[in-house]
Design goal:
This protein has about 325 residues and is α/β, with parallel strands linked by helices. It contains 11 helices and 14 strands. The two termini are about 35 Å apart. This is ABC-2 type transport system ATP-binding protein.
Amino acid sequence: MNLLEVKHLKKYYATHKAVDDISFDIRQGSIFGLLGPNGAGKTTLLRMITGIFYPDEGSIRLNGHPFDPQRDTPLIGYMPEERGLYKKMKVGEQTLYLARLKGLSEKEATAKIKKWFDKFDINSWWNKRVDELSKGMQQKVQFISTIMHDPKLLILDEPFSGLDPINSNLIKQEIFNLARQGTTIIFSTHRMEQVEEICDHIMLVNKGHKILDGSVKQIKQDFKQGLFRIGLGVTPNAAQMATYHFTIVSMHENTVTVKMNEDSTTNDILLHFIHQRIPVTYFEEILPSINEVFITQVQQTEQAPVATAAQQPA
């Protein structure tokens, strides 16, 4: 079941098209990575999904029905990259206030805040002002404020900003727990290694357009280049490595990286070493990282001219 369905969404400003005909679906309980360089249209897209902006064209369906900001906003938790905490307000007072804004009673809000403060071991922060906290500590408070009303759709924009490795791992595990419990998560970040570790599906946007959309595993397969890393039991000579089945990319001691030729197979590569009496200690395919795919695809789209709103047909 899809929790969120976005169809042909468009948002134009005076000088450019911020979002230009983007469509995608997110199934319930998935962790969906929204990727793109600065100025790609990600923030505008998120603000339309949360009801902050209205689209010029297109439709949004949330939880099986057309999106209604007044009705559906309580179903969403949005943690923006720019912190939205009141600097002079005390932590406990502020989290209680934000929970009440999401429709929780004072009793419900107090119970949920206590649960999360216990879980994150931050009860001693209750009477501290936000501006007395470090950047990482503020991030933990903002995370709690975003999730304590149990949203169906959770939007996290750079949630690990300012966090040390221990607290990053703490937040990451909570993201996984929430997804297992059925929360649908949109995760926006520039840290591609986090995308590979956390997301099951990604969409890449640039210049207001969707560039690619698919599962992390499938995208890595789609962009593979026939590269293999092979461990050898002996150091071969040049004559033993000569073959039309692959091209040597690099070789260091007893490890060789090769690029398989178009008409060959992995069996052809292995048979070559068997025929040359070269023992193989390991054989692994080298798949591209999401970071490599990101850079390649963005660089390609950067060559295309930018469409402006003024160019849109009347």
